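Milestone 3.1: sequence recovery, worked example.
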């Protein structure tokens, strides 16, 4: 967590909200890791994780607080991850758009399953962003660029 993200987490979230935030992070990571092998850093798995995490947080914490936390998270100030942070910000916005589409559902299981399906559909149709020309460990390089999630890397 960035310093601002920690400040929001500890000062503005109650105990239950903190648990939901951490649960959503863990679930988003596990789903990305199990469904998108070797792309959980700057690839499709990364895009999925960000969209799923922010959409679940929007449902559990409200969209404004979810966006503030996501924006705060991207304030890592690592000059080696400029494109990565931009990719994450863009994918967070797509995740919020998906939340808004599914927002009418009050049933948790329905929301969860629809969210999973819609994110995967959006990935296939190029609504998300990923990075091309990554290092073997998934980090961005000077050759990396933002591309749509349905483009060949």
């Amino acid at each position: 967590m960035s310093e601002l993200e920690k400040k929001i987490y500890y000062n503005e979230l109650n105990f239950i909200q903190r648990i939901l935030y951490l649960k959503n992070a863990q679930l988003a990571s596990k789903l990305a890791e199990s469904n998108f092998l070797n792309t959980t850093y700057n690839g499709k798995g990364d895009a999925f994780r960000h969209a799923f995490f922010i959409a679940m947080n929007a449902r559990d914490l409200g969209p404004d607080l979810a966006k503030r936390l996501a924006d705060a998270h991207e304030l890592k100030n690592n000059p080696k991850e400029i494109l990565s942070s931009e990719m994450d910000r863009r994918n967070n916005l797509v995740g919020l758009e998906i939340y808004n589409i599914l927002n009418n559902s009050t049933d948790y299981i329905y929301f969860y399953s629809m969210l999973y399906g819609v994110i995967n559909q959006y990935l296939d149709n190029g609504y998300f962003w990923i990075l091309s020309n990554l290092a073997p460990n998934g980090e961005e390089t000077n050759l990396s660029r933002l591309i749509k999630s349905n483009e060949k890397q």
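The longest helix spans residues 15-35. The chain is about 65% helix and 5% strand.
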